Amino acid sequence: MADVTERMLALLSTLQTGRPFGGEELARRLGVSPRTLRRDVDRLRGYGYPVQTQPGPGGYYRLAAGRTMPPLVLDDDEAVATLLAAASLAAVGASAEGGIDDAATRAYGKLDQFLPARLRPRVAAVRASLETSPQRAPSVTAHQLTLVADAIARREILSFGYTDARGDRTDRRVEPYRQIHHLLRWYLLGWDLDRADWRVFRLDRVAAPARTGGRYTPRPLPAESATDYLRQGLNRGKQAVSVEVGAPVAGVLDALKFQDAEIRSLDDRRTGVSLALDSWQWLILNLAFLDADIRITAGAEFTEACRAFGARLLAATEPR
Fold it and tell me: How far is the first Cα of the chain from the last one, in angstroms, to the nearest whole number?
């Protein structure tokens, strides 16, 4: 499949020069047989590319003029997945003008015109059948994400204004490392030059980011990944809790779907959960919906609070 894809891209790139190519010349350029060339041209036409053919002596292959914007080369499942990805991203955000959710909304309505003709009816059917419920979350712009991405790719220092959770604004100079999307929030992980330490910034709180032109040498990250570093920071000061739930993993995933929890199947009837919490009340409330036996492993203060609450529940159900 990789060879076919590479061959098709080479053929398309050659035809997009706009001039006609004889069959022998084109086959020689691509290093394929005339029979393989004919099959590849048929594939391009199946994807919606208007490849013109003149048979006989002096014949040629040529891409029709004015069609240099090609359809996306996607199979059926990839086309549906792309549409659903745009719909999901469009549903998350404040729908502010210029936000990435706003851009996803526009792309959602235009996607089918860039697909091969045979896929357009299927994608149109999926779109007509689909609704997504909005989820309010801070929005960032596509321009902001791409500017930061370019700085990361070029290893270029960023400068920007930053407003923290208390509302205090500071000017920052940062060696950007990764952008992270976590629990409906966009983050930037980078080395803060003025504080000489790693820092995580909410991208929706970043103002006027600018590439400075200054280059840097990447530093080793003190974590397995940027996401791990972010989660360590978010969970700092929280209580580590492990729970064994007497229920299949599907039900537990549904009950804890909006939480940063590691959930794994122990067997067909038991599920293990690891998470970090601010309060025991939150855990008890969510686990109550599972209607399943549970076993909690945590610090003494956390487990004692659970025991005390259990005793109060027992007392509340005893006859007066």
Answer: 74
Domain 2-63: give its CATH architecture.
Answer: Orthogonal Bundle (1.10)
For 145-218, CATH number out of 2.60.40, 1.10.10, 1.20.140, 2.30.30 equals: 2.30.30
pLDDT band at 217 (very low <50, low <70, confident <90, very high): very high
Tokens standing for 70? 């090609």
C-alpha 178: how far from chain center: 13
Residue 44 has pLDDT above 80, yes or no: yes
The CA distances from residue 111 to 12, 157, 318, in Å, are 21, 35, 62
User: What residues are paired with 276 via a beta bridge?
Assistant: 240
Q: Quick check: 227 and 260 in contact, CB under 8 A?
A: no
Helical ranges in 16-49 per DSSP H: 23-30, 34-46
Domain residues of the chain, as ranges?
A: 2-63, 76-129, 145-218, 239-317
Select from 254, 241, 261, 314 the least CA-distant residue to 290.
254
Could you tell me the pTM of the whole model?
0.68
pLDDT in tens, 140-172: 998 999 999 999 999 999 999 999 989 999 999
Strand residues in the chain grouped as ranges (E): 51-54, 60-63, 156-163, 169-182, 185-192, 197-202, 206-215, 239-245, 262-265, 271-277, 294-297
The two three-digit tokens of residue 282, written as one number: 């939150």
The answer to whether 292 and 245 have CB atoms below 8 angstroms apart is: yes
CATH topology for 239-317 is: Alpha-Beta Plaits (3.30.70)
Bridge-based pairing state of the strands 60-63 and 206-215: unpaired
